[in-house]
Design goal:
The complex is a heterodimer of chains A (294) and B (404). Helix content of chain A is 36%, strand content 21%. Chain A has nine helices and 14 strands. A seven-stranded mixed sheet of chain A has the order 3-4-2-1-5-6-7, with helices on both faces. In chain A, strands 9-8-11-10-12-13-14 form a seven-stranded mixed sheet, with helices on both faces. In chain B, the strands form five sheets. In chain B, strands 1, 8, 9, 10, 11, 12 and 13 form a seven-stranded antiparallel sheet that branches. In chain B, strands 2-7-3-4 form a four-stranded antiparallel sheet, with helices on one face. Chain B has 13 helices and 19 strands. Chain B is elongated and about 85 Å long. Chain B has 404 residues and is an alpha+beta fold. At the A-B interface, helix 4 and helix 5 of A face helix 9 and helix 13 of B.
Chain lengths: 294, 404
């Protein structure tokens, strides 16, 4: 079992023929993802990577029955691309693009909510359900089918956690990067909710970072509704105040915004918080073992 | 895809006020000066406009807390103005928000003194516009307690902090501007002026793609005008492509030279005060690596994200930037090879090491992911003073070892 994507997902690529889109589409096809076509305005009717190109998302949906879109469109045009997907019957939009202005994302968030469409990202590595469905840019080979749901604000740190989980023998039900921007389509709380409802997920790993109140929101939800264990690491305990650390969203604002403050709230709510990112996999394993003994 | 690794652009007070003015926000009369002579000329022009021979001189640096540190002075005649301008221009201003050595003042803003006598008492308020990240929309935050540290006000007297949420579909509404003015206890002409002021501030925030507009204090003069006495604007860097005029305001003098150089190489570098440098692919993993350094007994000397490719050239640029910091006693390279292969990264590290020549500090290279074993082998057989690791825990133990 899994969430968001599986082998029945019919995926189109927006920004299909650009260099990023071309490279990662090739990788996704190799992994086994059912890529049914792509969209590049003005190139409709042509063929790329043995898949049809369409001028509009609406055309692509009509002709291919696509229900998932992944976006590699450059930042000035990415907000429009998300809205086009949401307006055309796509149910899950995965936006990889980094650098979309916050003001654009305010409108996008309103728009996707009004059309009841799920957006993942932007500025995220995407979502993967091993062994054969990858809608993103993560390295497929580190993943292993299993029972752990992974939610992360960061890309390479998610790979680190996933690698540890695979090597611990557990594997993933689904792994997802929710993105490093201040406004995100899917929040940590929403991702955790999806995993709690998934019968194929036994436990979760949440990778958070400094900046914003998203991890605290997830923690309070877990305290009230959590039925499965959650292991969490928060990056940025050593980050200086007032500086953005790579991600637009990773900036310490007020006093309640530090890594320590977040960890305290998560612990209070029953989440298994690790201080070292080297301990994510082993801690998940320990927590599950202890639960099964009981 | 990144145009500039700083995600938010800071502006000087005079720049912020010039942007606000374009959107109809009332600000004190003011002119920028870089020398004492220019300051005198500015003061005379302002005197012609306002009829007053009292001014304020304000140091222009990218840091708050200037007043208490002696960077803002009221002057009551041209002699005082000359003396204070001479003192402030060129000084090293140290505030709680500057680096320990302070920041050099290169320019001052000469402004009319807005504390002039009149029919009513002057008042100070607080107003800011910012993003509510959880809800994904803009809020106004305001308080009758202006001119103070707003975090302190929020902590000690939360009843004096008001917020107003802006619906993105319709923007700010007149009833909301009225609400602000009523909650600040205003009436008559001042009330009307505050409504205009709040609306203009929001328009400036929205129109300039700001992440923050903070006016502290919002000043009510003795003749009932509402002015932005101070102004802080932070612009969303990702939106600068549609604001070339604001992008041109970037002041490289205010930035760390090593960070500016790194940004020219498209490296995302933030200098810190520790003793272990690090070079990582990805922002989250970079922060986690800094945390590992601290847990292993070191202090992170920097944040450095080399991005996805981690090619030999980028690794070399990264080494050169880290090595400029004399406090660095060791360097931890942490690359998770996903799309990029670890053996290539390892060869890049070896090449960069040889190109730079003698590196005096120990280097720990942790490579995980595609071809990690092959990468480790290349490092181990290079004969260089480089320790290799595959798991994060091995890397952490090596940091502890070289730092003890």
């Amino acid at each position: 079992m899994s969430i968001l994507v599986d082998k029945n997902s019919r995926v189109i690529v927006q920004g299909f023929t650009g260099s990023e889109g071309t490279f990662h589409t090739g990788q996704m096809i190799e992994y086994g993802t059912n890529i049914v076509g792509g969209v590049t305005p003005g190139k409709g009717g042509q063929v790329h990577l043995e898949r049809p190109i369409f001028n509009t998302v609406a055309d692509a949906v009509k002709k291919t029955g696509a229900n998932v879109s992944i976006i590699f469109v450059p930042p000035p045009f990415a907000a429009d691309a998300i809205m086009e997907a949401a307006d055309s019957g796509i149910q899950l939009v995965v936006c990889i693009t980094e650098g979309i202005p916050v003001r654009d994302m305010i409108s996008v968030k309103e728009y996707v909510i009004s059309r009841n469409v799920r957006l993942l990202g932007p500025n995220c590595p995407g979502v993967i359900t091993p062994p054969n469905t990858k809608v993103g840019i993560m390295p497929g080979f580190i993943h292993k089918p299993g029972t752990i749901g992974v939610v992360s604000r960061s890309g390479t740190l998610a790979y680190e956690a996933i690698d540890q989980i695979s090597k611990s023998g557990l594997g993933q039900s689904t792994g997802m990067g929710i993105g490093g921007d201040p406004i995100l389509g899917t929040t940590a709380k929403e991702a955790i909710e999806l995993f709690m409802e998934d019968p194929g997920t036994e436990g979760m790993v949440l990778i958070g970072e400094i900046g914003g109140g998203m991890e605290a929101e997830a923690a309070y939800w877990i305290r009230e509704h959590g039925t499965k264990p959650v292991v969490c690491f928060i990056a940025g305990a050593t980050a200086p105040k007032g500086r953005t650390m790579g991600h637009a969203g990773a900036i310490i604002g007020g006093k309640s915004d530090t890594a320590e403050a977040k960890k305290a709230i998560l612990r209070e709510c029953g989440v298994h918080v690790v201080d070292s990112p080297a301990d994510i996999g082993t801690t998940m394993l320990d927590v599950l073992k202890k639960m099964k003994k009981r | 895809m990144r145009t500039n690794p700083l995600d938010f652009m800071n502006l000087h007070e005079y720049q912020s006020k010039s942007i606000l003015k374009k959107y109809g926000v009332a600000v004190p009369e003011g002119i920028l000066a870089q020398t004492v002579g220019e300051a005198v000329k500015a003061a005379e022009i302002i005197q012609n406009m306002t009829g007053s021979d009292k001014w304020v001189i304000k140091a222009q640096i990218h840091a708050g807390g200037r007043g208490k540190a002696g960077g803002v002075k009221v002057v009551n005649n041209l002699n005082e103005l000359r003396a204070q301008a001479g003192r402030i221009i060129g000084m090293q201003l140290i505030t709680p928000q500057t680096p320990p050595e302070g920041k050099k003042v290169r320019k001052v803003l000469v402004e009319q003194n807005i504390y002039y006598p009149g029919p009513s008492e002057p008042m100070e308020f607080y107003l800011s516009v910012l993003l509510n990240r959880l809800k994904g929309h803009t809020i106004l935050m305001y308080s009758p307690r202006g001119g103070m540290d707003i975090e302190k006000v929020a902590e000690e007297t939360p009843d004096y902090i008001f917020t107003e949420e802006i619906d993105p579909k319709v923007g700010i509404r007149p009833f909301q501007c009225r609400k602000v003015a009523f909650n600040l206890g205003l009436s008559g002409e001042t009330f009307k002026n505050m409504i205009k002021f709040v609306n203009a501030i929001y328009q400036a925030y929205d129109g300039s793609d700001a992440s923050l507009v903070e006016i502290n204090p919002v000043f009510k003069t003795s003749d009932n005008k509402i002015l932005a006495a101070d102004a802080k604007l932070v612009i969303d860097n990702n939106a600068l492509f549609r604001h070339p005029d604001i992008a041109a305001m970037r002041d490289f003098d205010e930035e760390d030279p090593a960070e500016v150089e790194a940004s020219r190489d498209d490296l995302n570098y933030v200098r810190m005060n520790g003793n272990v440098g690090c070079m990582v692919n990805g922002a989250g993993l970079a922060m986690a690596t800094m945390d590992i350094i601290k847990l292993s007994g070191g202090e992170p000397a920097n944040f450095l994200d080399v991005g996805g490719s981690a090619s030999a050239k980028r690794v070399e640029q990264g080494f050169r930037i880290i090595l400029k910091d004399p406090n660095v006693k060791a360097i931890l390279v942490n690359i998770f090879g996903g799309i990029v292969r670890c053996d290539r990264v390892a060869q890049g590290v070896v090449d960069a090491y040889n190109n730079i020549g003698e590196i005096k500090v120990p280097i720990i290279v942790r490579l995980q992911g595609t071809n990690a074993e092959a990468g480790k082998k290349i490092i181990d057989e290079s004969g260089l003073r480089v320790h290799s690791a595959i798991t994060l825990r091995e890397a952490a133990d090596l940091v502890t070892k070289v730092m003890s």
